[in-house]
Design brief:
This protein has a five-stranded mixed beta sheet with strand order 2-1-3-10-4, with helices on both faces. A five-stranded mixed beta sheet has the order 7-6-8-5-9. The radius of gyration is 21 Å and the shape is globular. α3 crosses α11 and α12 crosses α13. The protein has 14 helices and ten strands.
Amino acid sequence: MKRRQLLSVFPLLLLSRFPSQLAATIPPLTLQLDWKFNAQFAGVLLADYRGYYRDAGLQVKVNPWESGLDLFAMVTRDQFTIACCEQDQLLNAQAEGYPVTAIAAMLQTSPLGLMSRPDTPLNSLQNLQGKTIGVHNNGKKILHLITDLQGLGEDSIKVKVIEIPYKNKIKRLLSGELDAIQCYTIDEPIGLEVEQKIAPNVLKFSNFGYQEYAQVIFAHNHLIQQYPQALNRFLRATFQGWENAFIDIYKTAQILINYYINPDRSYYNLAYQTQSLQGLREYVIPLNKQDNLGEIDPKRWELMSKRLADYQLVSKFIPVEKSISNVGWVKLST
């Protein structure tokens, strides 16, 4: 083997045989999640539980969401904190000047959608005709975006859209005050079914062109520049966790219940976690089967960024080269 070739593979050989020896040169990392421990972070939690981060020569502490956290301020203050959020949230932070960049996405499309009572059909956008819909934050703008993408226009569907808080939204749906409410389709419909014994109808925004990435992993620009190999190993371990989470869904759910989920929360339910994991698979697996788990397609990211800017879901368009960074990927078997 030529000297140049040997030098190029030596770090990989060192990592595979002596990962613990590299840990001392890499400061401990914190992964700050944007919600509580539950199935939507199964890959991360499984990587933690099975020691994938440790085996990669990393010290990683995973923290659940706490009320009042400012993810972008946190990562800006501490470049060794990595966090996750939705694509539009990251783009808005970048527009405000936060020194952060996306490096991967746990979910390839957003789980945002609507849910209705079983007696209220929700198979298409036309089903919204004459309905009263409760949405959060930018929900009205999202509905405008997807109806335009489907060529329907604002006047073709008469629907009353009102902004609502999270509190009491299920009660307002069940009472008939609202015909449908915005939800995170990977857990809220399941929660309604488990707790109320009612299987709601669900409409997924992703089926109508809302193709933004979700649970986007982002890091401080300095961390990306200074420790690209460490981030590469971090991503490999994370998505090894995601791959293995779906091999035995029931066992993964048991691990979440036994080791991570607070017994005082509604998430502390084995059936809930199992069903959520089953629904998560379609969001984790890449739309393009040739892509790696977690990989961000620059063209799709840029197209969605433009759409988000056009419909004022983000304050301005951020060019893809200033928004995402591929720090390296490993092809997994899923």
